[in-house]
Design a protein that fits this description.
The complex is a heterodimer of chains A (112) and B (113). Chain A has no helices and 11 strands. In chain A, strands 2, 4, 5, 9, 10 and 11 form a 6-stranded mixed β-sheet that branches. In chain A, strands 1-3-8-7-6 form a 5-stranded antiparallel β-sheet, with no helix packed on it. Chain B has 113 residues and is mainly β. Chain B contains no helices and 11 strands. In chain B, strands 2, 4, 5, 6, 9, 10 and 11 form a 7-stranded mixed β-sheet that branches. Chain B has a 4-stranded antiparallel β-sheet with strand order 1-3-8-7, with no helix packed on it. Helix content of chain B is 0%, strand content 53%. Classes of the chains: A mainly beta (112), B mainly beta (113).
Chain lengths: 112, 113
């Protein structure tokens, strides 16, 4: 059974701090990795994707991938109260297409 | 550029009935995937269609089915509804070639009573 594991949280950080969200996956054949943000009552919104080992930065967000350790993380710098949401890690389980396996999500709370 | 459109947004059905949900992908996207989201199980993959063919399938019973039309619009059907089918059903659109990013619609909230 292919799995994606996340700490459910809640992860609480003060405004301006760095939030670190972690995810592990079981399928060594996974090729692409995604982070989605989901506000309560809304649909998931894609915020980052990463395909290669290393870091990928986009504004205040940095995704990190370590395929040897089967580990992917998301860093949010200068956290804002508007970042408070559930963050979903997703892994593409197939050679092609978008059959994503999702973790259960980590709830982030940023206090002002 | 218009996003992914799902209709209807809300549905209430009775056990035993069937339901059809619709999804219009982003213009130019050829892949449509369907997911079920519940508080207990999270987001679970149902199936993916690409160029009118089912390309991938999740671990759901045969009561769940789908199809895709030549304009890439997709429908999913759930027959003989059960209480446990109450969920948010999400459609995701992607270009479909290789490993591509998927963008979600607003979802259809299905309640089975």
């Amino acid at each position: 059974q292919k799995e994606v594991e996340q700490n459910s949280g809640p992860l609480s950080v003060p405004e301006g701090a760095i939030a670190s969200l972690n995810c592990t996956y079981s399928d060594r054949g996974s090729q692409s990795f995604f982070w989605y943000r989901q506000y309560s009552g809304k649909s998931p919104e894609l915020i980052m994707f990463i395909y290669s080992n290393g870091d990928k930065e986009d504004g205040r967000f940095t995704a990190q991938l370590n395929k040897a350790s089967q580990y992917v993380s998301l860093l949010i710098r200068d956290s804002q109260p508007s970042d408070s949401a559930t963050y979903l890690c997703a892994v593409n389980a197939k050679q092609a297409g978008t059959a994503l396996i999702f973790g259960k999500g980590t709830t982030l709370s940023v206090s002002s | 550029k218009a996003g992914v459109t799902q209709t209807p947004r809300y549905l209430i059905k009775t056990r035993g009935q069937q339901v059809t949900l619709s999804c219009s992908p982003i213009s130019g996207h050829r892949s449509v995937s369907w997911y079920q989201q519940t508080p207990g199980q999270g987001l679970q993959f149902l199936f993916e269609y690409f160029s009118e063919t089912q390309r991938n399938k999740g671990n759901f019973p045969g009561r769940f089915s789908g199809r895709q039309f030549s304009n890439s619009r997709s429908e999913m059907n759930v027959s003989t509804l059960e209480l446990g089918d109450s969920a948010l059903y999400l459609c995701a659109s992607s270009l479909g070639e290789g490993w591509t990013e998927a963008f979600f619609g607003q979802g259809t909230r299905l309640t089975v009573v």
